[in-house]
Amino acid sequence: MVISSLNTTRILDVIRFIENCITELKPFSEMSEDMFLSEKKNPPYVESYLRRGLEAVFDIGRHILAKTSGFKEIEYKAIAKELGTKGVISQGLSDALYKMAGYRNRMVHFYREVTPHELYQVITRNLSDLERFNKEIVAFVKKYEEKK
Q1: What is the pLDDT of residues 53-112, one digit of tens each?
Q2: Domains of the chain as residue ranges with CATH
Q3: Residue 46 in contact with residue 28, Cβ under 8 Å?
């Protein structure tokens, strides 16, 4: 059921924004934890780019679900789940994004509890989830464009 057309130009622009966030985060994901923690500015820098990257992921997801399924939900965990259920992304990525949605909420609502150590853990273990998201969404957009 197509509600209205996807704005694929907008989606690809936001994908580029996510790629920029990944580019900014990548050097930190390759540091040792001691090196990461040795510079006081590293955790807030990483937190900002990680949060913004995740916001962009869920903005894309919300747009796709709204335009293809009439989805009105704005809760990020629901977006992650529905993207997998609808086959927009793989179930494995959907599960990973579900957890990342929870972490994004933690960064926004429980920001005083977010530690530099956990930020380091997230970027060293989960940065590839953002890269996977970009690849799977680009593939989805290509299929969508072929059907138009």
Answers
A1: 999 999 999 999 999 988 887 799 999 999 999 999 999 999 999 999 999 999 999 989
A2: 8-147 (1.20.120.580)
A3: yes
